Amino acid sequence: MEDETGQRIVPEAIRRTSRPAEHHAGNRYGNRPTMKDVAARAGVGLKTVSRVVNGEPGVTPDTERRVQEAIDALGFRRNDSARVLRKGRTASIGLVLEDLSDPFYGPLSRAVEEVARAHGTLLFNGSSAEDPEREQELALALCARRVDGLVVIPAGDDHRYLEPEIKAGVATVFVDRPAGRIDADVVLSDNYGGARDGVAHLIAHGHRRIGFIGDMPGIHTAEERLRGYRAAMEDAGIPVEDAWMSLGVTDPERVRRAAEEMLRGPAPVTAIFAGNNRVTVTVIRVLAGQTRQVALVGFDDIELADLLQPGVTVVAQDAAALGRTAAERLFRQLDGSLVTPERVELPTRLITRGSGELPPAD
Amino acid sequence: MEDETGQRIVPEAIRRTSRPAEHHAGNRYGNRPTMKDVAARAGVGLKTVSRVVNGEPGVTPDTERRVQEAIDALGFRRNDSARVLRKGRTASIGLVLEDLSDPFYGPLSRAVEEVARAHGTLLFNGSSAEDPEREQELALALCARRVDGLVVIPAGDDHRYLEPEIKAGVATVFVDRPAGRIDADVVLSDNYGGARDGVAHLIAHGHRRIGFIGDMPGIHTAEERLRGYRAAMEDAGIPVEDAWMSLGVTDPERVRRAAEEMLRGPAPVTAIFAGNNRVTVTVIRVLAGQTRQVALVGFDDIELADLLQPGVTVVAQDAAALGRTAAERLFRQLDGSLVTPERVELPTRLITRGSGELPPAD
DNA sequence: CTGAAAGCGCTTACAG
DNA sequence: CTGAAAGCGCTTACAG
């Protein structure tokens, strides 16, 4: 059978009785056995069960066996939520990023996860969708769960709402962009230097009329990259014309228009510096439709960039290193070895593949 | 200053006193205020604080104001971990996938997150790294935290370890591949039909010697796709030769050798069906180095596939739909409206972009 | 070696 | 409208 969305639904053979309704409807975690139940069944005290479950010494082999049998018979699994309530640390951290589905955040998340795992810590993950309110809502919900720490890729520019949490001991590290209006650890790429190097690379290949398409000013990374662009131009003694710059929302339609604009007229740009991966992709599409060859350097690496014709030259960030560094700092805050908020800048890497080495068309 | 890894570390101005050591070292969540503290300060009972915090009726405006003031003064935030212990449901679910950094799982994770969010539920995320032991370790750690449910992309093929948890009421949905040796909900793509359609597409464009490079048999998706390949060939009355098939580990080196092998000899394949996105990418690289034109259809879409020359024809899965469907089923299990384990198959989509429409070279 | 009591920070059920 | 008592499932501190 097939429903209206094209799904095909096949009932599986039912090899066991279907789950009783009370397991769903009831609370108490479906009436799971507790240490008390195990203790009763094994005929021992609660603390003895706790000792066995946690591998603490001081239990005779015979007692241990009896307890273990009760555990197995009942299918007991320790409730770590209760444990954590008593112990203080929840052994969980939260990662608030912009969009889980953005490929840039995959390696970053994975790196955070690996560090967390090495510390016996679980990871909550959530997207702010670039909405400051949603970021706050998510971050505070995680704090209410008493995560030990928070790695935040900020959407908003005012993080004072986190001040009480940080004071209360929630370790906090910002990534990619600094925190707004509070003093906090931040790990980010050298956006200024990376953009400057990328633009200088174009200049070194003979370009003077170089376009810049970037995100809205107000976004820290966008500002830094624009600053890098201006610095490279100034270093080369090239006065920047307004017509060469497009700053704003980076939806494909807008980027397309901006690129086409720059490529029109009597003195069009001969090269474009794209401010982030989404812009780069759109610009590639625009350039594919041009007869004239236009050089391109993009900020952020993109997959398969080397397979395109020409290969796409980029200023690459190391997303995994951002995540790893941030998570390591988080745990250093937690163990008390890091107290002063710092700003850590990771270097970017210029990867030349062809598009950035094209000479000016005129 | 710059350290050995090239990191630049800049101490931030310290606008507030650095966090006292006891906030890090101590447990008790850094001595955070509790409802009891709020009650004492406001001069009311515990339950009254609870009422205000939870917006329950039956508190005079005056009392409410006093409580609210105490909350603000103390920086109180309800401990949802404690709340959850008492209430039974943790309002959290876990997502165990193969690799957070794999772009295929980005949209899937995001879709699960959105459904969870709509249900006021937080999401734990973790990677199995294709290691069945790590999958089990992670899934059981999440169960110990008493997540309400689990979405699992299985790495292993024996999930009996989850049986006690499922019986105890942990909602469980498998995605991408079915559970092993237990009867459980599963949401996956129509791997068989997708592969069959893709191969039939190549046949329709005149190919007869068609190579198949896929993952190890034993992996469910790999087997289904191979079955689809065989079915399409059989439908066309083409006997498959062993030399046209490569099944096994899909690391780039091995895939490269396999592809080159197929393209050698007196009767080389004129088209290749690639069993997954990683294989496709490697095959593209191999084909780029060939003088002869070889047709290609890949399972799974890849980014920028349309910008390559020729564009890459693929059988696309809808990763977001997989995640969304799985999460929705999870919550339907939780609310009791879904009791019988089912297998839901989502259709795939053939996207023609050029590489699959090339005629045979001979 | 073993266990009863108190407590983690909340909510539930009940009584005033 | 308000609150004291009991309890969620564990661990801690202590006593036998």
TrEMBL record, chains A, B:
Region Disordered: which residues?
1-33
Matching entries from Gene3D superfamilies are given as: 3.40.50.2300, lambda repressor-like DNA-binding domains
Key word Transcription regulation present in the record?
Answer: yes
Q: Where is the HTH lacI-type domain?
A: 33-87
CDD domains, A to Z = HTH_LacI (cd01392), PBP1_LacI_sugar_binding-like (cd06267)
Q: Which GO terms describe its molecular function?
A: DNA-binding transcription factor activity; transcription cis-regulatory region binding
**A Pfam match:** LacI
Comp. bias regions, Basic and acidic residues = 13-25
Give the UniProt keywords, A-Z.
DNA-binding, Transcription, Transcription regulation
Quote the protein name from its UniProt record: LacI family transcriptional regulator
